[in-house]
Amino acid sequence: MFFVAAVLTILSGLFYAASRVAMCQYGSPFCDNPLLVLVAAGLAACWGAFVSVR
Question: Are the CB atoms for 30 and 15 separated by under 8 Å?
Fold first, then answer.
């Protein structure tokens, strides 16, 4: 789950960078609001921490 959180964090950064450049021409919701992907990364990290408790 931590791998998923890391991937989502990287994707959030890519969507943020794409929203600042002319890469998001079609109005993707992730390019308009990359914070959604970052929130999903935080939730995945929390879930991973919850599941890995022994």
Answer: yes
Count Cβ atoms within 10 A of the Cβ of residue 18 and give its class: 0-12 exposed, 13-18 middle, 19 or more buried. Answer: middle
Rg for the chain, CA atoms, rounded: 13
> Does 11 map to a domain?
yes
pLDDT one-digit tens code per residue, 2-31: 888 888 888 888 878 876 666 676 667 777
Indicate whether 13 belongs to any domain. yes
Domain count within the chain:
1
Residue ranges of alpha helices (H) inside 1-54 are 2-20, 29-32, 35-51
